[in-house]
Amino acid sequence: MSFLTVDAGLAARGVHLAVGVAEGETVAVMGPNGAGKSTLFGLCAGLLRPDSGRVALDGRVLADARSTWIPPHRRGVALLAQEPLLFPHLSVLENVAFAPRAAGASRATARTAAEYWLGEVDAADLASRRPAQLSGGQAQRVAIARALAAEPRVLLLDEPFAALDVAAAPALRRLLRRVLTGRTALVVTHEPLDAHLLADRVVVLEGGRVAESGPTAELLERPRSPFAAGLAGLNFLRGRAVVWGPTARTTPPGHLRVVGLGEVSGTVPDGADTPAAGEEAIAVFRPADVSVFRPESAPHGSPRNAWAAAVRELEPRGAQVRVHCDAGSHVIVADLTPAAAAELDLGPDVAVVLMAKAAAVSVYAA
């Protein structure tokens, strides 16, 4: 049973979200801009009021479309924004003590709580400083301590690393991994690394709805939406299953008919759902498993998938070049070495043939 339940919407934003979070679970919320992530946080924190459905915490309705409305400070929900938003006129200790003081704690109790949480985030030595004397990473640690000092039942973190430089982010990730253990939390992020390190589960939002949800490793390994596939760095094709072997994993492999691309051959990975003939299914494969040929040199009679395509762009990626190609109405990407890309003389609009072995393509029910 869900500890935090959101089944609510805002018609003006075209959003209706159904999200449940178990007690002690950390959920990563991911999706493109405008998908509804900020709306979800606003509904939970009490910054937005739903015009349909309701938001509930541990069986207590926080807000609904009728008359129930619990103000933000009485919800037991703490929101940590991208920016630390510390009070500039207060010391670090006073900033952290503000949360329990606002909840009615005595000055001495609030100070004790502030000292404890500053120690928990490795910022005890910053207690006497003012926010202007802190680095970005230090300020974010203090903001986390302030949020935790309120003893929230649910913690909302809105892209907690967005305002940090690259050097400060790894330490803060380790810190959050430690302090979020056993806490009920929602974390908005665009980084797969954050989802893997911090979250038990991922919820992907698209177009104001939940597109998919599942355990982090499973969802990023077998995505069911183009956005999640992009996060996992996988090519993503959706079509319908047309032929399957006698069992799910025997030769011949399964085939997927994709509009504008033809048939795609692949195999069903262990633990995945096998699609029935005619059922909607998904194929995913790594860019590293895609070979690129000029049409005149492409091998013939091979059991591999082969698609005619045109190069859209070349993207340098360290020791590799990512080749984005238009194949029918789909985009397929391949990773090559710079030497291979140069030998093929690739550039925009150059015709190519893309190939991928069936064993490298995972096919499963959508």
TrEMBL record:
Annotated protein name in UniProt: Sulfate/molybdate ABC transporter ATP-binding protein
Organism: Sinomonas puerhi
GO MF annotations, alphabetized: ATP binding; ATP hydrolysis activity
Keyword field contains Mitochondrion: no
Domain called Mop: residue spans: 300-365
Gene Ontology BP annotations: molybdate ion transport
Key words of the record: ATP-binding, Cell inner membrane, Cell membrane, Membrane, Molybdenum, Nucleotide-binding, Translocase, Transport
Matches recorded under Pfam families: ABC_tran (PF00005), TOBE (PF03459)
Domain of life: Bacteria
Cross-referenced PANTHER family: SPERMIDINE/PUTRESCINE IMPORT ATP-BINDING PROTEIN POTA, THIAMINE IMPORT ATP-BINDING PROTEIN THIQ
Residue span, ABC transporter domain: 1-232
